[in-house]
Write a structure and sequence with these properties.
The protein is mostly helical. It has twelve helices and no strands. Helix 3 crosses helix 8. The radius of gyration is 23 Å and the shape is globular. The mean pLDDT is about 80.
């Protein structure tokens, strides 16, 4: 079967685009497990680079700091975004567009400006100098808007009459939330948490201004570049890529099996409609 010129050109463009995007990732992965990281072709496998990475105390400290920032920022951003989204969709009324504009405003602020302004605000008004707490709060501001949009896609089709029915039969607002609302919207919360964690974990600009000399994985990798690209950086990039790939694969499997939707409607539901 011969392809039409337009379709062949489209397939060629897609193939070239995927090669452009993923060949560097494959090259870095091979370099992190090869004896010769400069040109790992054909690869001669070795775990020496990974061993040096995991034995490096600087990267161990940076990993611990990045995990703290990522987990704390994701938890706080998801909780605040969930409450804001529920209030926006259920109680905002005609003022909903105004509140939504305020909530998503951080999307249009550069991360460098957000880091600098957070440093000044936290120091002058909150009395928080550059430390982990200040870095977490700044990352929450950055991740909040993304988490809100993700949760909103889940709540867009939510039937609020279920909450009203529960309260009519005597359930308190707190019990209604934990026994009716939360079991139905938790996939959106999980998706928001995963995205917020990845963003805060990999953030450089905001954490750099708020932490200074305290290392995180992005800042440690950025600082190491001053001495050239060492094999440990290949291994570090591979580990981060594997974690992100694992999280995305988990989300994909949950969506394909129908256990979680993340706002996505399976094919059988769309055909039924």
């Amino acid at each position: 079967m011969r392809l039409k010129p337009g379709k062949a050109a489209l397939l060629g463009t897609v193939a070239v685009s995927y090669l452009f995007l993923y060949l560097p990732v494959v090259h870095i992965g091979l370099a992190s497990f090869a004896r010769n990281s400069n040109f790992p072709y054909p690869p001669k496998w070795s775990l020496d680079t990974m061993a040096r990475l995991f034995s490096n105390s600087l990267y161990q400290t940076a990993l611990a700091n990045s995990l703290v920032i990522g987990i704390c920022s994701a938890l706080l951003a998801t909780a605040l975004a969930g409450l804001a989204t529920i209030g926006l969709m259920r109680h905002a009324g005609r003022r909903a567009p105004l509140y939504l504009a305020l909530f998503i405003a951080p999307l249009f602020v550069a991360e460098v400006l957000l880091g600098i302004s957070s440093l000044i605000f936290n120091g002058l008004f909150l009395g928080l100098r550059g430390n982990m707490v200040s870095a977490v709060l700044a990352n929450v501001v950055h991740c909040f808007s993304y988490a809100l949009l993700i949760i909103a896609t889940q709540l867009y089709r939510y039937d609020w009459r279920l909450d009203d029915a529960a309260m009519v039969f005597g359930a308190s607002p707190a019990r209604t939330f934990f026994e009716v609302t939360l079991p139905l919207i938790w996939p959106g919360l999980l998706g928001a948490f995963i995205v917020a964690f990845i963003m805060a974990f990999n953030n450089l600009e905001i954490s750099f201004y708020l932490l200074g000399a305290t290392p995180t994985l992005p800042s440690a990798a950025w600082g190491a570049l001053r001495y050239g690209v060492k094999p440990e950086l290949y291994a570090l990039a591979t580990c981060v890529n594997l974690v992100v790939l694992l999280l995305l694969s988990l989300m994909f499997v949950l969506m394909r099996t129908g256990l979680v939707t993340f706002g996505h409607r399976p094919e059988r539901e769309r055909s039924a409609v």
